[in-house]
Structure formats: C-alpha cells, structure tokens
Amino acid sequence: MQFVATQIRRATTALLGGLVLAHAGAALADVSPLSVSGNKILAGGQPASFAGNSLFWSNTGWGGEKYYNANVVGWLKSDWKSKVVRVAMGVDETQGYLADPAGNKARVKAVVDAAIANDMYVIIDWHSHHAENYRNEAIAFFQEMARTYGNHNHVIYEVYNEPLNISWSGTLKPYAQAVISAIRAIDPDNLIIVGTPNWSQDVDVASRDPISGSNIAYTLHFYAGSHGQWLRDKAQTALNNGVALFVTEWGSVGASGDGGVAASETWAWVDFMKAKGISNANWALNDKAEGASALVSGASAQGGWSAGQLTASGSLAKQIIGGWPGTTPAPGGCTRVALPGQIQAEAYCQMSGVQVEATTDTDGGSNVGYIETGDWMTYDVNVPAAGSYVVKYRVASASGGGVIQLERGGGGSTYGTVNVSSTGGWQNWTTVSHTVNLPAGQQTLAILAKSGGFNVNWLDISRPGDANTGGTTIQAESFDAMSGVQTEATTDSGGGLNVGYLDAGDWLSYPSINLPSAGTYTIEYRVASLNGGGNLQLEEAGGSVVYGSVNIPATGGWQNWVTVKHTVQLPAGTRKFGIAVRNGGWNLNWFRVTKAN
C-alpha cells in the first residue's frame, strides 16, 4: 500500500539520519552557503527563500537595543520558526555607531554570534539614510565584520539600508562598489545586499546599471499600507532585468511605520515573494508604541512572548514567518497560469513531502503521489475577476479517506475542501470538484492534504459555465532569458505586465513545461499592435527546432488586445519554449499551450 510504504520509508530515513547526526555531532550544524545565479538567491546551489525578523535600530537609549541578545534570537528560531535575523545597526543618528561604536558593535556581535549558534542567517545592516557620507567608516566596519565572520555561511552584509532620492549611477553605485571591494578583499563569497534609491524602492533603476561582481543582491523595502502593485511591478522589472532581490525590511502598516494592518495587501506581497523566491525580514522586533512593532509595550527583553504580547502586525508577521515553506522548488521552475486553465499537479511552485511518479492516466506523463496528511503543493495563478470558480481535481486512491483543502499559499485563507473516496487503486482515476470563491489578481494557491492517501494528476479551475479550456498559460513577462524587450503595465484583462518594445531579432525563452503526450497542440497568443505586420516564431529555446509561426494583425493600439493562434506538432516530454521576433511592432501579454482534441 502506497501510504503505508511511504510511512515506513520516511521512518527509516529519519532513523538513519538520526544515527548519522548522533555520530557526527555538532560538526554538521551549519547553514547552506548563499550565492546568486541570475535573479535567484541559491542556498547550497538550489533556489531557496526564507523569512525572519529585523530588529529595531540598535542606537543606545532608543529602546530597541534591549532585544539584541541571545535569548531573543533563540526564541525567534524556536517559537517563530525564523530563518533569518537582521541587525539594524544605527550609524549617524543620535547614539548610533558613530557616537557609540563600542556599544553598538557589541550589540551587533551578540546577535550575530547567537544567530550562528542557532543556525540562522544574519544580516549585518549599515542602517543609515546617508551612508554615502560615511563611506570610510562603512569600509572600516565591514572589514572588521568580514575578518570576524567571513568564514561563516550565516553572515550577509547589507551595506546601505535606505538611500533617499539620490542618483544610483552617480552616488550609490560608487559607494557600494567601494564597500564591496573592501569586503571582497577579505571575504570572497558571502552574500552582499545593496540599498537602492528612494527608500530602497527603485530596484528597477539599479537593475538597469547593475554592479559587477558575484553574489550581489539588491534591497527592496515595502510597507503594505502604502506600497502596492506599482512597487511589485518595479520589482518584477528588476527581476526581468536579471538581478536578485532581498526584502530586508517590510511592514504590514504604512510607510511611516505606524497605522493599522493592511492585511489584504500584505498577503498580496507574501504571494509575490513566495512566487518569486524572495527572502525577507519583518520590521520590527520591538515594543515601541507604533503599528510596525511586533510586541506590545513592556514585552520581555528575553523572548518567551505569549500571543497576548504580540501586536496585530506582530501576530500576522509570526503567522507569515512560521508558514514560510522549507521550499523544494519544482524542477522546471514556477510559471504563472492565467485562469481559466488546467494545471498539471507536478508543475507545483513549491511543495512539502510529496513525490512525482509516472501515471497511466489519459495522456500519460506524471502525477503527484505519496501524499500524506499535512503535505502540500503551491501554484502561481492569475485570477481574472473575483467570484465563484469550479475547481476539479483528477485523483486516485486505493483506500479513500483523503481530504483536499484549497487555500492561499502560506495559509491565511481557506477556500474550501473536497473528499477523495476510494477509486480502487493508485492509478484508477476519477475527477472530484467543488465550487469556491477566489479573490482577483496574481496569487499563490495551495493544495493541502487535510487527510492523505491519494494521488493528484491535475487540477482545473474555471468559472461556472466556462468551456473547459485546459492548457498551460505562460505569462509573457515570466521569461528566464531575453534579448531586446521590456516589460510594462498592461490594461488587458487580469492586469499585471506585458512584454513590449519587440523588434525584429528580439527573443524570449521560458521555463520548462511538461507535455504529457505528443500530438497536435493549439498555441494561442494574446497580442496588441498599433500598425500590424508583426510575425512571431515558436521554437525550442535557442532555435534548434522551429514549431511554427503566426502573423500579428493591427489591433488599433498598443493596449488593444486580441488572441491569435496556430496549431503545431509537439513531442512529449519537457519542453523549453522560445519566441523569436521575425517582424516587430507588437506587444505580448501571454501565450497558452493546449492539446487539441
């Protein structure tokens, strides 16, 4: 029986792992080294993201410094499940590092030492709004930190917290290059994070003139009460331009650090960060009487806080941090699916506990199996409008008793559950469904096994009365490589971004998708063109195989959208599609790959 066999397999693995750890002792205690590849931060060479807390300013007498101790760090690790802690060392403000170097540096080291002992990542932050005025001091400080901690994988250097409205290329980049060079002379490989203009929001500006060197990421800060989709669009532009981001500071309140919790916008940011694999730290672990503080006034300076000692923003932050996945990315990466559409179960963005295996269901390919209670998978989708949706699941179960729960990725909202009865075997397939209400917009959905013991081949999400379109929809801006194009906001249904400025000779390539069987496929493209005359070619990325081409008509404007299509013959298996621009003068919002009946 599959479910029982899985239990035995995992128990054996745990036993062997325990024996190895008992033999090796503390020598195995460490975190994976961080590195940057394209727009991703990798841990041990694999895409990963993690969440945690930022401490408040370290300045002497400001109130937040009492939380700079090992007991607090240990509590964040054990109770909050934090994977990263940020030390926000105040620099030029009253009683910061420049006025009290010994006191502030001692606090920094206390937290860094505790993070290393607890196998957490730790960000050493030069917390200033005017760091360019203190470049020599920053160099000396980070040289000392690199000499002291550069041999620890745990340590991340943040060389500038939040620049104001100053030039990236003329001021910030030269400052960062000088500090980075000083660090690299001592520590050649630990992650370095660089602040960006306008309170670390203009990541798109920095991405157009990036710093040369390895293992460099860029700071993005948001406060959900003030910063919405427009800032996520800037972040997406930066990612599209090939730089990696790290949200070293975020809040669920307004940009002032005060006000009420903007829960809906906070979850939109969480969905975005999870979908893009962006690590983050919540501001701020402090008891100051303002909305962004995680703790109520007078909360213990040694950890051990009860639920009643957390503020509204603190409670939400703890939920988000505790629910951050110990991620296992899908082999082909995560592609946003525009609904209505059918999603192959194995095309998850992240998962916990499941395995992929060959299926004998119609069209072959793979299914997700070994699903036990508490296991989950997430999928990145774009819901065109809020309302009722029919969600179908293709399932198989030898014994029945399973329960699927559809929820927001990371928790927070449960949309509905459906039971999985016995189908008589692990490859005896049937379809179950339920109707749920979904909010509009780009988001991450999750399938949680409330009760396990079933397989899933695919899920299909449509509006009641919609035709069953199926297929896999790929957002144009989700390319993993390109030449010559730009992204921009779109007014097409579903919003978000489209790809524009497409000229002859430009191209885009996309993350791999799996085609369960060979045959005839319909390829639809959502396009807009002021003058027409364009032509695109669908090919295997790199151009080794050309599948077909289609002409782009005039639609009357750059945001007047129509769908064009053609049929092509595609082989089974993993395909990495490319789009080559044979004649330009058009925009692309998405394309959809559907097996012809």
Automatic annotation (TrEMBL):
The record ties this protein, via Pfam families, to: CBM_6, Cellulase
Alphabetized, the UniProt keywords read:
Glycosidase, Hydrolase, Signal
Q: Does the keyword Phosphoprotein apply?
A: no
Under the heading InterPro entries, the entry gives: CBM6, Cellulose-bd_IV, Galactose-bd-like_sf, GH, Glyco_hydro_5, Glyco_hydro_5_CS
* Keyword presence, Hydrolase: yes
Task: Give the signal sequence positions.
Answer: 1-29
- CBM6 domain: which residues? 341-462, 472-594
Which family does the UniProt entry place this protein in?
A: Belongs to the glycosyl hydrolase 5 (cellulase A) family.
What is the recorded name of this protein? Answer: Carbohydrate-binding protein
Organism expressing this protein natively: Pelomonas nitida
